[in-house]
Backbone:
């Protein structure tokens, strides 16, 4: 069975005035139907760029240098613009970090959801409106009828994120990309939104890519985890396996920083040339001469579990 | 749901607090009221002239007659030019001509009030041969007050129609320019060569070509391309088009700058992600977000259209007689001798002044009211 989404050797670079920034390097993963994949990493590790590349919305000066993004078997990167419009918001939807700024302040939320409906379906205004109302109810906005005519500034952050989710679901997408959907919300609301996403994932039978830097979120809703560091996948595996026994010192460091409040020393590098060593080596407690001489490949450590570390069998809790 | 105050509520309150802006608003309100009812309020019509009363000064309105009796209704005296052709007018106190309100002046052509109701009733009037020249007359004995009212129809509408046309053009071009800035549109693919067109660059550079010329000379030059003698209505639209043509680059530049910042906002990315077309994103999501600023620019650029029309008409290249326009009325004030002897012919200039003042006060107030940093 072909996976819903398969990314192969994706390489993205930003051609800025200060040089070429290697944002994503030789990145691959696959996502089966009806599964939730969590992508974790620090700010700047290339999570959002990867997500945007799936819709081909990388901001300029960014360019996809090579790779394939196969969605249901077709390569998104070779599609003409006109075909892309049919995928965006229709087959693949995305929600963003900050619901405060992701809604147009000039239109009512109902209008904006209806717009998302009419963007892809030939329905009458009345139908779009009733569909929008149904969506508002699906994302559990209380008094949906009243909220329908509210402007974004009249709603709280959590409600706005619900509206964004309603817009994303308007065409029954098979893939929902949630780019840090809870980062701008307070903790109690975060939990509600996550539960909502998990619930809708089952109801709408979609796959979800959840991007976050919060490991707690991953453990709650995801099936599979992918840890990104400096544009690379450093570890990938099932949630249970990774949380029980991380096999990359970075994942280990992330878990320890959450559990024991011990930070990982150093900073995420901004790569301007191809790496010749392990990118994590400068911050790694296991780093040895070998790490500085060559970049490790992805090792299969367990079933479905891979780690990009020479010493993956020495990482222990 | 939080019953929040919208941007407009806040702006309206701010505007009310600004005394000068409120003054500007009421100034304009009065002027527009006079314009709408011009043919009713004016005692004569714009073509009316009394050949025996050239350069007649404003008539004196009396309550007390020559014998010292007080009269409740104000009245005027007929005046006689003594000596002939001297343009000195002496009142003849032998007969009083009371001022009638809602006076049916059958000597004039019927006018249609609000373009609907044909009537020959005017707000004020006196019996012949006396005249009620509130602001005096010009060189051919036409009532300046009447012609100022009729002229306001040109001045007060050309500004608004002018900004509508020029801003429609400027926003259209500027929005395209801003949205495609730094994103050349590919034109296809041909033997390994990928031609693309940098819309932004083309628009901005051609706009700058127009901005290079001093605008008044450009206006005159463009006017020279077009036949000199045209009907007033044609000239009116011609002026609008000419002025819009030389103004769009400045507007397009401002709009481009606004679009550049708005297109980076997250809701634009969100709109792209739900599959909106570029066209829809520009017109439904970006352009409406520029409106609060555009309104300010619009208000502040209305005066330049009024002045532009007055300038062309003053040089006899715009609205022509007998059609009244404040600009062509001022043509007579070119003559310094006439100006010193008959200063009332400068009154259209005063009206231009207060109209421009009104728009500027209102525009300044709007700018402060819509700018969150200026709010108190």
Residues:
């Amino acid at each position: 069975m072909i996976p819903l989404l398969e990314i192969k050797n994706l390489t993205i670079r930003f051609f800025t005035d200060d040089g070429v920034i290697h944002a994503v390097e030789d990145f691959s993963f696959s996502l089966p139907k009806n599964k939730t994949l969590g992508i974790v990493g620090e700010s700047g590790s290339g999570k959002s760029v990867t997500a945007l590349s799936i819709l081909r919305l990388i901001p300029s000066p960014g360019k996809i240098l090579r790779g394939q993004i196969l969605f249901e078997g077709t390569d998104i990167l070779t599609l003409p613009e006109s075909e892309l419009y049919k995928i965006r918001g229709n087959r693949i939807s995305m929600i963003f970090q900050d619901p405060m700024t992701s809604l147009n302040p000039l239109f009512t939320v109902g209008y904006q959801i209806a717009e998302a409906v009419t963007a892809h379906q030939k329905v009458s205004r009345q139908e779009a409106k009733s569909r929008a109302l149904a969506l508002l109810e699906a994302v559990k906005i209380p008094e949906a009828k009243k909220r329908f005519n509210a402007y974004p500034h009249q709603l709280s952050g959590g409600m706005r994120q619900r509206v964004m989710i309603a817009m994303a679901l308007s065409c029954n997408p098979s893939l929902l990309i949630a780019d840090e959907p809870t980062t701008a919300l307070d903790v109690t609301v975060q939990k509600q939104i996550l539960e909502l996403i998990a619930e809708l994932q089952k109801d709408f039978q979609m796959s979800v890519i959840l991007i976050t830097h919060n490991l707690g979120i991953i453990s709650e809703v995801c099936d599979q985890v992918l840890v990104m560091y400096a544009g690379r996948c450093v570890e990938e595996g099932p949630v249970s396996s990774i949380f029980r026994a991380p096999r990359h010192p970075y994942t280990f460091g992330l878990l320890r920083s959450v559990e024991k409040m011990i930070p990982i020393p150093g900073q995420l590098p901004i790569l301007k040339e191809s790496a010749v060593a392990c990118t994590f080596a400068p911050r790694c407690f296991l780093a040895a001469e070998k790490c500085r001489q060559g970049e490790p490949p992805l090792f299969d450590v367990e079933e479905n579990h891979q780690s990009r570390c020479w010493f993956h069998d020495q990482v222990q809790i | 749901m939080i019953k929040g105050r919208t941007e407009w509520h806040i702006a309206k309150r701010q505007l009310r607090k600004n005394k000068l802006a409120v003054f500007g608003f009421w100034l304009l309100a009065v002027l527009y009221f006079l314009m709408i009812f011009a043919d009713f309020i004016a005692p004569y019509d714009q073509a009316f002239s009394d050949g025996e009363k050239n350069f007649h000064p404003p008539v004196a309105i009396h309550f007390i007659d020559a014998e010292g009796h007080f009269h409740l209704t104000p009245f005027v005296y007929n005046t006689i030019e003594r000596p002939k052709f001297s343009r000195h007018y002496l009142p003849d106190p032998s007969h009083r001509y009371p001022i009638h309100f809602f006076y049916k002046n059958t000597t004039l052509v019927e006018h249609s009030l609000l373009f609907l109701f044909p009537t020959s009733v005017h707000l004020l009037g006196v019996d012949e041969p006396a005249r009620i020249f509130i602001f005096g007359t010009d060189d051919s004995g036409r009532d300046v007050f009447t012609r100022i009212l009729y002229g306001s129809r040109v001045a007060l509408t050309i500004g608004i129609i002018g900004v509508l046309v020029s801003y429609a053009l400027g926003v259209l071009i500027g929005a395209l320019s801003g949205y495609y800035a730094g994103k050349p549109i590919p034109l296809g693919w041909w033997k390994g060569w990928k031609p693309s067109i940098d819309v932004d660059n083309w628009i901005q550079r051609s706009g700058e070509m127009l901005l290079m010329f001093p605008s008044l000379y450009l206006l005159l030059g463009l006017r020279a391309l077009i036949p000199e003698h045209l009907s007033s209505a044609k000239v009116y639209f011609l002026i609008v088009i000419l002025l819009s043509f030389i103004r769009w680059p400045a507007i397009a530049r401002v709009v481009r700058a606004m679009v550049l910042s708005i297109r980076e906002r997250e809701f634009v990315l969100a709109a792209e992600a739900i599959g909106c077309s570029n066209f829809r994103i520009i017109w439904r999501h970006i352009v409406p977000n520029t409106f609060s600023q555009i309104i300010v620019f619009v208000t502040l650029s209305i005066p330049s259209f009024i002045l532009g029309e007055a300038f062309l008409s003053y040089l006899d290249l715009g609205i022509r007689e007998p059609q009244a326009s404040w600009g062509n009325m001022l043509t007579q004030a070119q003559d310094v001798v006439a100006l010193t002897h008959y200063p009332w012919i400068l009154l259209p200039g005063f009206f231009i002044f207060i109209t421009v003042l009104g728009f500027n006060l209102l525009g300044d107030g709007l700018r402060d009211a819509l700018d969150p940093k200026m709010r108190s």
User: Anything to note?
Assistant: The domain at 147-374 of chain B is CATH 1.10.3720.10 (MetI-like fold). Chain B touches chain A at residues 1-4, 6, 182-183, 265-267, 269-277, 280, 284-285, 288-289 (CB under 8 Å). Chain B has a mean pLDDT of 84. Chain B has two domains: 43-141, 147-374.
